[in-house]
Amino acid sequence: MSGPMCLDDFCGGWTLSRRIDDRQAGHVISAEGRAELVEGVWTEHVTMHLPDQAPITGYRRYLWRAEEAGISVFFDDARAFHRIALGAAESVDRHLCDPDIYDVHYAFEDWPSWRAIWTVQGPRKDYIMETRYIRA
User: Block means of pLDDT (10 residues each) for the chain, length 136 residues?
Assistant: First the structure.
């Protein structure tokens, strides 16, 4: 299999490691944590490590909905976010949040381990965030 084939392939728990190259601020942030997909709700709990600061814990929640040949991802308030194409080794999409642009590249070549790479640019944003997910 070259990648996930349906929403159910993501169900369950994942460990995650994240690296954020914040080119605007000129530093790198790391994070680790856990993600989980249960009944169409994707949650992430992370601990972030910023230079010269105490660790920060964070939490995010997204809604994932199966659609033909993919997954539609929504913010937890049901606003559309982006789409994940399935059945291939990679998927790319773009989210426009004026004035910022969020480009995502999902890499499934090592499925069931996978990566999400976000490139974000805007007047006050310029970073690349790469997250690796490994089945828990």
Answer: 89 98 96 98 98 96 95 97 96 97 97 97 97 97
CA–CA distance, 69 with 6 (Å, rounded to integer): 8
Torsion-angle region of 12 (φ positive above 0: left; ψ -120 to 50: alpha; else: beta): left
Which residues on adjacent β-strands are paired with residue 97?
Answer: 100
Asked if 32 and 5 count as a contact pair (C-beta separation under 8 A), the reply is: no
Q: Do the Cβ atoms of 92 and 6 come closer than 8 Å?
A: no
**CB contact burial 22-48 (16+ within 10 A = b; e otherwise):** beeeeeebebebebebeeeebebebeb
Radius of gyration of the chain (CA): 15
pTM: predicted TM-score of the whole model, two decimal places: 0.95
Alpha carbon separation from 92 to 13, 21, 47, 67, 85 (Å, rounded)? 23, 20, 27, 16, 8
Q: How many CB atoms lie within 10 A of CB 10?
A: 20
Largest CA distance in the chain: 46
| Pairing state between β 80-85 and 90-97 | unpaired
